[in-house]
Amino acid sequence: MTFRSKAFEIAQGRISPTIAPPTEKVADLYGSNTFSDDVMKTLLSAEAYGKISNAIRSGSTIDREVADEVSAAMKSWAISKGATHYTHWFQPLTGSTAEKHDSFFDLTIDGRAVEKFKGSALVQQEPDASSFPSGGLRATFEARGYTGWDPSSPAFLMDNGGGGKTLCIPSVFISYTGEALDYKAPLLRSLVMLDKAATGVCQFFNRDVGKVTPTLGIEQEYFLVDKALYYARPDLLMAGRTVFGHSPARGQQLDDHYFGSISPRVNAFMVDFEFEALKLGIPVRTRHNEVAPGQFECAPTFEEVNLAIDHNALLMDLMQKVGDRHNFQVLFHEKPFAGINGSGKHNNWSLSTDTGINLLAPTSKPKENLRFLTFLMNVVKAVHDHADLLRASICSAGNEHRLGANEAPPSIVSVFLGNELTKMLEELVNKGEITLEKGENFYYKLGLTRIPNLQRDNTDRNRTSPFCFTGNKFEYRAVGSSQNSASPMIVLNTIVANQLLEFKREMDERLASGEEKKVATVEILKRYFTESKDILFEGNGYSDEWIEEAKQRGLTNIRNTYDALYAYKTEKTISVFEKIGVLTSRELHARYEIELENYVKKLQIESRVIGDLALNHIVSTVVKYQFKLAQTARSLTDLEMLAEAEPIKEIIRDISSHIVVIKKLVGEMTEGRKTANNIDDLFERAKYYGSEVKGFFEEIRYHVDKLELLIDDEDWPLAKYREMLFLE
């Protein structure tokens, strides 16, 4: 029995575990493993609770006395629930989360054992930063880096298995000189500035608004593969995707997996991780089968952006831990299997006020819809003016396989508003000169009475659009499933904040000159629409016609990562980020370098995996099988059964032709990789990997996949698509 057949036998023999529901109600279970507001209110003094609540709301500084009281309460709460260690939980620029566990256990001077957790340990820690990517912000020998507590995201308890829990404290991560080495620090900066800018614009419509909070709902797509089959695929293990594999006769063409009945084994996994997620305060609500076989999706209730991103990063880690219990490997790669849909992470983004208003929701009141139009058009204008930067924010080697692959949004950034809303905006622009009249007539003349119809969802949801308006929010569909959503949200928050500040500046100037507020607002919005309408597209983003039309409109179609990332280092980008105070020029250049380096390393790994599998697994196995065929053909020839021997000889010749090409291409790819590795300039190295080395991937795959159809099923060394994708 081969390793592959043994793995398949193990996978087939799995029995769906029974997951016992919690004894308490879900509402009581929710947040039970978080240091929540209710827990703080119970354990802290009224004064300390007031100060920490104010710090969370307004960003004010937390003094040492309060930090000491909070740390004591955290320690007491965590130990009572079985925690033995604590860690600052942070999100470095590796794309995953990081943690260094320290024990509550300590010794006094006289040698007595105590449990200790000071306020200083809560507020700041010093993990070794030398091995985290910095993009040149510090030298490798400069190891010092700091993590700092983010009180706006609740601390939580994580059970890593094997006994004992860890108190995890969400934190920022900065260098010794103060630059951001993570996603959270610039995200928090962008949220503060977006709040300030949006609140300023809200003041034109409602003086009662004192705060604007961006909200986010992240839909997470993923694949499940049995652990045994996962370990039977070295490419999945090393590269996160299958570099070889012939499409099965049946894939997703019947559309029977989408929203289909969830198998008992998968459902047990989903129920298990949902219960664990709820304990951690992650409000997961939706689960379903996705389009491709073996693909699924989960989605939470909308939350404040910072918390939503923390929860998504935590959820991905949690899903892997729970997957182990069910003998599943969770695949977050954007394109783990060829020929079927890849996975994205749809970011549903909106703006809410402290008065309970969704600023991106149209209403039945014309005056409120002028506010809605203001925020809608400022977002569209921001995306239009910084489309390349938004494209750069979702770049990765994995997403490069997915974008534009006839199932995901194309690499052309466009905005979908829906026919009705676009038509209304066009009519608004075409009204010409505006005559100001009292009351509702003013809005009627502007065509604003048409907007309330949108509440009935009379516009479709365009799944081919990378950035689409869906009734009361914008959905950025191009984000990759393995990515940290902070990257695109930092960009979106920053460019929208910048645009809102520009809108306010112009409004203030017009009002100071005596122009009527309503007229000034509409005149600015009309110009924004005229300047931004080229990015609006209602049609099929998958079509070849759109590629040509987008070119005529002047929209960019940046297909590869190394070119797209250049947007991070343009003067235009640097100017906006430094003006808003989110990232400095040094920090932007660092992120550019880190993403390019990551791209190179990912392709380097994939190239090595392809070469290893092709020569040491495929060709070696095929040669052995070819020898069996040769013996059979020789025996038939000795028996003078020449006609019967000829088809076997033909198969041998076909196999040989593929082997020759594979060995030639792998050799050329290896030489190309050596050439790339000797290129000093990082951009040129990334370009060579992306254009030259990567160019061999599909060619080699073609011949290996052809061999899969020629070799006896029992002899093929790799787990096949039909085994991995259709396993219940």
Shape: globular
Question: What percentage of amino acids are in beta strands?
Answer: 5-15%
Q: What does the main sheet amount to? A: 9 strands, mixed
Distinct helical segment count: 26
CA distance, first residue to last residue: 22 Å
Low-confidence stretches: 432-444, 449-458
The level-1 CATH class of the largest domain? Alpha Beta
Assign a percent range to the helix content: 40-55%
By CATH, the architecture of the largest domain is named: 2-Layer Sandwich
Please state the average pLDDT score: 89
Alpha-carbon Rg, integer: 29 Å
Query: What is the fourth-level CATH superfamily of the largest domain?
Result: Glutamine synthetase/guanido kinase, catalytic domain
Provide the structure class.
alpha+beta
| Count of discrete domains | 3
CATH level 3 topology of the largest domain: Creatine Kinase, Chain A, domain 2
Number of strands: 17
GO molecular function: glutamine synthetase activity
Family: Belongs to the glutamine synthetase family.
Protein name: Glutamine synthetase type III
Domain GS beta-grasp: 84-178
